[in-house]
Design a protein that fits this description.
The complex is a heterodimer. By secondary structure, chain A is an alpha+beta fold. Chain A contains 14 helices and 20 strands. Chain A has helices at about 10-15, 45-50, 55-65, 75-90, 115-125, 140-145, 165-175, 180-185, 190-195, 200-205, 235-255, 290-300, 335-350, 380-390; strands spanning about 1-5, 30, 40, 70, 95, 100-105, 135, 225-235, 260-270, 275-285, 310-320, 355-360, 370-375, 405-410, 415, 420-425, 425-440, 445-455, 460-465, 470-475. Chain A is elongated. Chain A starts with a strand and ends with a strand. By secondary structure, chain B is α/β, with parallel strands linked by helices. Classes of the chains: A alpha+beta, B alpha/beta.
C-alpha cells in the first residue's frame, strides 16, 4: 500500500504561510520574480478570476486586479521540503520524493490501517502549518488522486489530476472529455493512436492502473561526534584528548558506513561564547584516526583560544566510498598524508602556505615567475613522467647554470666610461655584459630600464640596472 | 697460552666484504666508498666526494657570494626533482627561472618561505620529519648546537640530505655537518664576449672537500662550464 502526502501548489502555500497578512480567501499567485516575472502557481481564487500559469505578473494583475503576487523563494522551499521529508521518515522508512509537494510512502508491513497511517503522516507534518493532504491506495497514481477525492470517487476528478500537458487537456476538452471517468470510457487503441504513446499511460491511470515503482530517496549520510557539557578544557593536552576521542568515534562510524572523509570540520565553543570553525583537509580520503589527528594537530598549531574550550564537534565532510587512487611519488615512496601534515605544519610555522614556482615569458625578470600553493594532489605520477620525458630519463652530467639570487633592491653608485659601467660602489668592473633595454608594461605599469651583468674586482657577479638617472642593484649570481 | 683469534667463516666473509667495500687505495689516498650517496650530478665533484653526499646527513656548500654554491645546489635539485620531491627553505632570494634552466622540475620543488632563523630551523625540521623529500636545502643561519643536533638526527632518521648554503659556517654547523665543500669560481665565462651582445655563460670553478666523515677529505674537483668533467 502506498501513502501519498501532497501539498497542492506547494510553493504558493509556503509563500502564503509566510505572509499571515493575506487571508485564506484572498486570491494569490506565485511568481518567479517580483515585477517582470511569470506566474508559476495559481490558487483556485486567482484561477477563477482569470489568472493562469505562464502569465506575466502584469497579465495576472490585469486579469485579477485584487490578486496578491507572491515571489518564489526556491532555496527556502527546497529546505522546507527536505525538512518535511525528514519528518516523514518517522512514518515510513521508504519515502519516494516526487518533487516539492508530493511524496509517496511505502506502508506495507507497518502497523495500523489506512486511517492510522494518514493520521500519523498528518501529525508528523503538523508543525509545518501547510495544507497537507494524505491518502492511501494500491498504487502511486490512485493514492495521489485520492488526495483530491476524499469521497474516493476518482472518476469525477478533472483531467489536471493526470499532471499532463495543458494543451493535451484542451484537446481532450474539445472532444468533450472533462473527467477521468470519461477518459477511461474511451477505447484504448484508437485513443492511443490519436494522442500518441504517452496517452496509453493517461488511459491506464484513468482506469486506476499505475505500474510506476516506488523509488525510496537516498538518505544523506552525516557522520559527526561532539562533546558538550563535560566541563572545560584549558590545556592543549585536554583538547587533544577530546579530539582523539572524537576522531575515534567518527572513524568507527565511517568504517561502519564504508566511507572515508576528505575533510573534517571542527567547531570549538569557548567559555566566552566564541565559536570557531576549523577545516582540516586531507591529502586523500581517510578513515584512519591517527592520520586525522596528525592533520588536525598541525592545523591547530597557530590557533590561540581566548577562553577555555567548553564544546567540541567534529563533522566528517565530503564523504566518499572507501579506497583511494594511489599517488606515485617516484623513488621516494612518500606518504601523501605525511606530506599533507607537513604542509599544514609549515603553514602554522611560517604563516604562509608552502608554494611551488612556475615561470612565464616576460620582459621584466620580476614578472618571469610566480608562485602557487603547493598541493599534494597535483604532485602526481603524471608530473614525474613529464619530468622524466623532458629530461630524457636519468641524467648523467649536470650543467653549471649561474643562479641569480634576488636581493632587496637598493640604489648604488655607478661610474660610467664609454657607455659601460666602470666602477660599482667604488669597485672596479672587470667585465660587463649589456645593456639590455627592458621596456614593458607601458599601458599600466611602465618599466623602462637598462640592465647589465657585471663582474667586480672582488669576484662579485651582479645584475644591476639603470632606471632614469639612478642605478640599482637587483641581485647577485651564485 | 696465547692463541690466534678464531673467526668463524661467516664473520670472516663479512669482514672481507666490508674491507672490499670500504678501503680502496687510489693514488696513495684512501678513498672510502660511500654507500647510498646522493650524487651531485657533477662527475668530478662526485669523485672528490667518493660518490656524493651521504644521504641522511647534513652537508654544506661554503664560499663567498658568487662562488657558485647555488649553481651546484641547482644541479642537485634538478636530480632530486627528476624522480621525486625536493624542498628549499627560501629567504626571499630565489629566482625560479634560473632553477628551471638548470633542469629543476619546479612542480616537484616545495618552496617554504621563512625569514627568521627560528622559522628557517622549524621549516627544515618539519620538512625532514615529512620523510617525503630526498633533498632539503636551507640557508645557513646561526643556530644553537642543540638545534643542529636535532636536525642531524631527523636527517638521519628520514634518510634525507639536508644541504646548507653558507658564507662562513658557524662553529656548530661546521661540527655537525658530515660533509663540507668550499666553492670558488676560477673564471667567469662570457658568451660572445662582453658588451651589448655578450652574456653570462657560466663558470669554471673548483670545489674543495673540507670535511667528509665517511671518506677522506682534501680532494679538489675542478668543474667546467656546461657539463662537469
Amino acid at each position: 500500500m502506498i501513502l501519498c502526502v501532497h501539498v497542492p501548489t506547494f510553493g504558493l502555500a509556503l509563500a502564503r504561510r509566510d505572509r499571515p497578512d493575506i487571508g485564506d480567501d484572498e486570491p494569490a499567485v506565485l511568481a518567479d520574480k517580483p515585477d517582470r516575472g511569470r506566474v508559476i502557481e495559481v490558487d483556485s481564487g486567482a484561477h477563477a478570476l482569470g489568472a493562469r500559469v505562464g502569465h506575466t505578473v502584469l497579465q495576472a494583475r490585469a486579469a485579477a486586479d485584487r490578486v496578491h503576487v507572491l515571489v518564489h523563494d526556491a532555496q527556502h522551499a527546497h529546505a522546507t521540503w527536505m525538512d518535511m521529508l525528514d519528518a516523514l521518515d518517522a512514518v515510513s522508512p521508504l519515502v519516494d520524493d516526487s518533487g516539492e509537494g508530493t511524496a509517496y510512502l511505502e506502508m506495507r508491513g507497518i502497523n495500523g490501517d489506512a486511517d492510522a497511517w494518514m493520521r500519523r503522516a498528518l501529525h508528523a507534518l503538523r508543525g509545518f502549518d501547510l495544507p497537507v493532504r494524505a491518502a492511501v491506495a494500491e498504487n502511486k497514481f490512485l493514492a495521489y488522486a485520492r488526495t483530491y477525492a476524499p469521497d474516493d470517487n476518482i472518476g469525477k476528478l478533472p483531467l489536471h489530476v493526470l499532471q499532463i500537458d495543458p494543451r493535451a487537456i484542451e484537446r481532450l476538452h474539445l472532444l468533450g472529455v472533462h473527467r477521468l471517468e470519461e477518459l477511461a470510457a474511451l477505447p484504448h487503441g484508437p485513443f492511443v493512436r490519436r494522442f500518441g504513446k504517452e496517452a496509453a499511460v493517461w488511459h491506464e491511470r484513468a482506469r486506476g492502473i499505475d505500474p510506476t515503482p516506488l523509488r525510496p530517496r537516498a538518505h544523506e549520510l552525516q557522520i559527526d561526534a561532539a562533546v558538550f557539557g563535560e566541563g572545560s578544557a584549558q590545556a592543549l593536552e585536554q583538547v587533544l584528548f577530546a579530539l582523539r576521542v572524537l576522531a575515534d568515534r567518527v572513524c568507527r562510524d565511517l568504517e561502519r558506513a564504508g566511507r572515508a572523509t576528505n575533510t573534517v570540520k571542527l567547531t570549538f565553543e569557548c567559555e566566552n561564547g566564541d565559536l570557531r570553525e576549523v577545516d582540516a583537509g586531507f591529502a586523500q580520503a581517510t578513515g584512519d584516526p591517527r592520520v586525522m589527528l596528525d592533520v588536525i594537530r598541525a592545523k591547530l598549531e597557530p590557533i590561540v583560544f581566548d577562553a577555555p574550550v567548553t564544546g567540541l564537534r567534529m563533522q566528517a565532510m565530503q564523504l566518499e566510498e572507501c579506497g583511494a587512487v594511489a599517488t606515485l611519488f617516484g623513488q621516494n615512496g612518500a606518504d601523501p598524508q605525511a606530506l599533507a601534515v607537513a604542509l599544514a605544519r609549515l603553514q602554522a610555522a611560517t604563516g604562509s602556505m608552502p608554494q611551488r614556482a612556475h615561470t612565464r615569458p616576460a620582459a621584466v625578470l620580476e614578472r618571469r615567475y610566480g608562485f602557487e600553493e603547493f598541493r599534494v594532489a597535483s604532485t602526481s605520477s603524471a608530473v614525474l613522467r613529464r619530468a622524466q620525458d623532458d629530461r630524457g630519463g636519468a641524467q648523467d652530467d649536470t650543467a653549471i647554470i649561474p643562479q641569480l639570487k634576488l636581493l632587496t633592491v637598493k640604489e648604488i653608485d655607478v661610474t660610467m666610461n664609454a657607455n659601460a659601467p666602470q666602477r660599482v660602489q667604488h669597485k672596479r668592473v672587470l667585465n660587463c655584459a649589456g645593456p639590455w633595454r627592458v621596456d614593458d608594461g607601458w599601458f599600466h605599469d611602465p618599466v623602462v630600464r637598462d640592465e647589465y651583468d657585471v663582474l667586480l674586482e672582488d669576484g662579485m657577479l651582479c645584475r644591476i640596472y639603470r632606471q632614469g638617472s639612478h642605478w640599482y642593484l637587483r641581485g647577485s649570481y651564485d | 697460552m696465547n692463541s690466534a683469534p678464531c673467526l668463524g667463516p661467516s664473520v670472516s666473509a663479512t669482514f672481507e666484504s666490508l674491507k672490499a667495500g670500504l678501503d680502496v687505495r687510489a693514488g696513495g689516498r684512501i678513498v672510502a666508498a660511500v654507500a647510498d650517496a646522493f650524487a651531485t650530478g657533477f662527475p668530478a665533484l662526485d669523485e672528490a666526494l667518493s660518490g656524493g653526499f651521504p644521504r641522511g646527513t647534513v652537508g654544506t656548500f661554503e664560499g663567498a657570494p658568487s662562488a657558485g654554491k647555488t649553481a651546484l645546489v641547482a644541479g642537485m635539485l634538478a636530480r632530486a626533482t627528476a624522480d621525486g620531491l625536493a624542498a628549499i627553505v627560501d629567504d626571499g632570494s630565489l629566482y625560479p627561472p634560473d632553477l628551471e634552466r638548470a633542469g629543476v622540475v619546479l612542480e616537484r620543488l616545495l618552496i617554504a618561505t621563512a625569514v627568521s632563523p627560528l622559522e628557517i630551523a622549524r621549516s627544515a625540521d618539519i620538512l625532514l620529519r615529512a620523510k617525503a623529500f630526498s633533498l632539503v636545502v636551507m640557508p645557513a643561519v646561526p643556530l644553537r648546537g642543540t638545534v643542529w643536533s636535532r636536525l642531524c638526527g631527523l636527517a638521519q632518521k628520514s634518510g634525507t640530505l639536508l644541504l646548507s648554503l653558507a658564507l662562513h659556517p658557524s662553529t656548530e654547523l661546521a661540527y655537525f655537518a658530515s660533509t663540507r665543500v668550499r666553492c670558488a669560481i676560477d673564471r667567469v665565462v662570457w658568451a660572445d664576449g662582453s658588451g651589448l651582445m655578450g652574456g653570462l655563460a657560466g663558470y669554471e670553478m673548483h670545489a674543495h672537500v673540507l670535511k667528509h666523515k665517511r671518506a677522506a677529505p682534501g680532494a679538489v674537483a675542478r668543474l667546467h662550464i656546461g657539463a662537469a668533467s
